[in-house]
Write a structure and sequence with these properties.
nine-stranded antiparallel beta sheet; 788 residues; 37 strands; alpha+beta; 21% strand; 19 helices
């Protein structure tokens, strides 16, 4: 800064003010300079704040400590990409963020690591200490100091390839290591490449489609030729170029200067090692790590930029964009050069212009993850549906938890019916509807409903069709069905979730004009009524003879996870699991007042034992508010049920409470298992201000947005805007609303209202409006009161 010196000036006989005027002029110049400097500094600060892009808010270590069970993984990947990279940390430590060692990094079928010093045939000997204070974690780039070896490891990813960069110290023995486990093969190619594969152990159920072998392949190129190398099998370490079997490894040995960088590019494939090589050449043709990193950052910015939020706090934007990032990881596109390997007939197929997706868990994802993705990219969702239908054609069954190796025997329900019905109801029908219906119908009528089982119908399934409920064991009755697994019968949950699936099938039967099927599946959709015990006011188990199971406790009954009767949570939650007919459930409970009283009690009901013992029995029931469990999917729609029962202001209060309490910007920031983005997708939709209670019905129920304005870029190029005037932490209640320029008096809207763009304007206050959305005729549609 220029220094102004003030000194005495000679005075004139004609003016005694010359010196004073000069001083005043000088001070004015100083003042103007300081003002200009402040303006420039403030402008630079504001510009820096304004230029923070969506990807810059993402913090992949959110949720790295699980509330009780599984923690999140800080993946580097493309949206829906095959290459998903994250450090392989200390085995046995469930809470990944608390691990203090890195054992390696994914390299397709192998694990890659860098080290210095002695060579070993034991991969764990190459592990290194690390510290999160010396780590960078983003969706497009990860870096960490391998402190045991004084090495910096960096990685980035593209669709089907990984790129690693290791910065070494000065040493005579620098190592890059590839290790593999079971049923593997490894080949050294020339002096700078290694290829290999490993068998993927897949599902083994009767309907899994796993009649052959699935393998994952890789092709790795090194930026520096091998000075020397060894391979191992078991304890045999030698300069052998080809290995096959179990416990294989490869290790280079070279000297490096301080700061010397060695890079590794790795292509992956489910088709062949040759295809892995082609994938690498196509996706990372050169050795420009920083360019690949920048390209992947750009891809993530575009994907996350599909939703532009304004307002809210820095913390809320961090949580939001991290949740959106986690919502865009699955399903996985495994199309390679227009082809894909299918684990459903173990053959390579031409993709015929439509990408092929696997890696889903519909019990988790049908509720909010798929509806969110459909809002952002309906064409991609239709490709996912076509993928499910291809799996059906190849295996004869419609999967629920499709992996690359076949359908996994996990959870309950045939929820592909929901995914398909939801797309159809929202007007996305670019798939073979007749084939889709045939697949849905076959699963609904010929596949067992048993938990964690894939196979044909059992006698228990027949009870559901004939008597309207899946039978539980009577008190003290021994198990009689050999197909029941250690997950037990979960009889009431099986009844409720299949009744919902049957409703979804009925919707497509109606669309296709199949009147008898529509009537049949609509009758099954009412089966929820059969397991509602009016005497106790809860969904309850019945034994095969139609009698209520004696001494049933809605809170603590059913053993571990209540699995004799329910799926991971108790009857307090599953009693509200009638998404397709909330109006019918309200009637069953005795009307709105009784329903609201029960729903109010859910959020304050205590455990009936110590909290320690409750969570010991229900480890999946985390994120508790009363007995409501935000950490588990059957709860997700429940806060929005007040929109059906005339008290939308309670929905507004509860969803804000759940977002504020159970979602954070640190390692404990997820209320439970994220389940491939399912729990995160609930937050994304709720933060925007709406949620689909019943996928398969094209409505969204309104909650309470946290941002002043959200611009949602739909897949068709249109935008849907949610404007929340005067929104704040306290201003969580909706006073009035407009949709597309018209007054909105109901607490819901249809997909058709926004599919070609639209604007929802909510006037927010700190006092609930007890009238808005409360009239019975303004309730969202249900099976018992469909919309006109």
């Amino acid at each position: 800064m220029k220094i102004f010196h003030l000194r005495r000036q000679p005075t004139s006989d004609h003016s005694g003010k010359t010196e004073m005027e000069s001083m005043i002029r000088t001070m004015k110049h100083v003042h103007r300079f300081l003002v200009l400097a402040m303006v420039l500094l403030c402008g630079s600060y504001l510009k820096a704040q304004h230029t923070k892009e969506p990807v810059d808010f993402v913090s992949p270590n959110i949720g790295g400590i699980g509330q009780l069970l599984t923690a999140t993984i800080p993946y580097v990947q493309y949206p829906h990409g095959m290459a998903r990279l994250a450090p392989v940390t200390t085995p046995g430590i469930t809470d990944r963020y608390l691990a203090d060692k890195i054992y390696g990094f994914p390299a397709g079928a192998a694990m890659l690591m860098a080290s210095v010093g002695d060579k070993s045939v034991h991969p764990e000997d190459y592990a290194s200490d690390f510290d999160h204070d010396f780590e960078t974690s983003t969706p497009y780039y990860y870096a960490a100091d391998l402190q045991s070896w004084n090495i910096t490891a960096e990685l980035t990813a593209i669709r089907q390839a990984a790129f690693y960069r290791f910065t070494f110290p000065a040493t005579d023995h620098a190592h890059l290591v590839l290790s593999m486990k079971d049923h593997a093969e490894l080949n050294v190619i020339g002096n700078n490449a290694v290829e290999g594969s490993e068998k993927i152990v897949g599902p083994v159920g009767e309907l899994s489609g796993n009649a052959g072998e699935t393998r994952e392949y890789f092709y790795a190129e090194f930026s520096r030729p091998f000075a020397s190398y060894s391979t191992w099998q078991g304890s045999d370490l030698a300069s052998v170029a080809k290995r096959s079997g179990d416990d294989l490894g490869f290790v280079t040995d070279t000297n490096t200067k301080s700061g010397e960088k060695i890079e590794v590019r790795i292509g992956i494939s489910y088709i062949s090692m040759e295809q892995a090589h082609r994938n690498l050449q196509r996706e990372i043709p050169g050795w420009n790590f920083d360019q690949v990193k920048a390209d992947t950052r750009s891809v993530w910015n575009k994907a996350l930029g599909a939703v532009d939020v304004q307002g809210g706090s820095e913390k809320q934007r961090t949580i939001f964009y991290t949740a959106l990032y986690r919502s865009l990881g699955r399903m996985t596109d495994i199309t390679e050069d227009g082809k894909y390997f299918s684990g459903y007939d173990h053959a390579v197929h031409n993709a015929e212009g439509h990408d092929f997706y696997i890696d889903d868990g519909l019990w988790d994802t049908y509720r909010s993850l798929h509806p969110l993705q459909m809002l952002l990219d309906a064409n991609q969702q239709q490709d996912m549906i076509r993928s499910y239908l291809r799996m059906y054609e190849q295996s004869g069954w419609l999967p629920s938890f499709p992996s690359v190796a076949g359908d996994q025997e996990v959870m309950i329900g045939h929820h592909a019916a929901s995914l398909i019905a939801d797309a159809y109801a929202k007007g996305y029908r670019d798939f073979d509807l007749n084939l889709a219906y045939a697949a849905m119908r076959k699963n609904a009528t010929e596949a067992t409903m048993l938990p964690w089982r894939r196979g044909p119908l059992t006698s228990l399934d027949k009870t559901y069709f004939e008597k309207g409920f899946f039978p539980a064991l009577a008190k003290d009755e021994a198990e009689t069905e050999p197909q029941v697994t250690g997950e037990r019968r979960q009889a009431v949950s099986v009844t409720l979730e299949n009744a919902y699936d049957d409703w979804c099938v009925a919707q497509l039967a109606k669309a296709l004009g199949k009147q008898s099927d529509e009537a049949y599946f609509t009758r099954l959709a009412h089966n929820y009524q059969v397991v509602f015990n009016r005497d106790i006011g809860f969904m309850a188990p019945k034994s095969a003879d139609g009698q209520w199971v004696a001494d049933f406790d809605p809170k603590l009954g059913g053993g571990q996870g209540a699995r004799a009767y329910f799926t991971e949570v108790d009857s307090w939650i599953y009693t509200f699991n009638v998404q397709h007919d909330v109006a019918g459930l309200i009637q069953l409970m005795g009307g709105r007042d009784s329903f609201n009283k029960k729903l109010d009690q859910l959020f304050v009901e205590q455990y009936g034992t110590s909290k320690f013992h409750f969570l010991d029995q229900f480890p999946d029931a985390t994120g508790l508010v009363g007995l409501y469990a935000q950490g588990n999917e059957p709860s997700f729609h429940i806060p929005y049920l007040y929109d059906f029962s005339g008290q939308p202001w309670k929905t507004q209060r509860r969803v804000r409470q759940l977002m504020d309490i159970w979602y954070g910007d640190g390692p404990l920031g997820i209320p439970g298992d994220d389940d491939g983005g399912a729990t995160s997708s609930w937050y994304v939709l709720s933060a925007l201000g709406f949620y689909p209670v019943c996928p398969g019905s094209p409505e969204y129920e309104i909650g309470s947005p946290i941002f002043a304005k959200s611009v949602i870029r739909l897949g068709n190029g249109k935008t849907f805007n949610v404007i929340a005037n005067h929104v704040s932490d306290r201003n969580k209640y909706i006073q009035s609303a407009q949709l597309n320029g018209k007054t909105l008096k109901k607490a819901w809207f249809e997909h058709a209202d926004i599919s070609n763009g639209g604007t929802l304007i909510l006037e927010m206050t700190d006092k609930p409006n007890l009238e808005w959305g409360s009239a019975p005729e303004d309730a969202p549609p249900s099976m018992s009161n469909p919309s006109e």
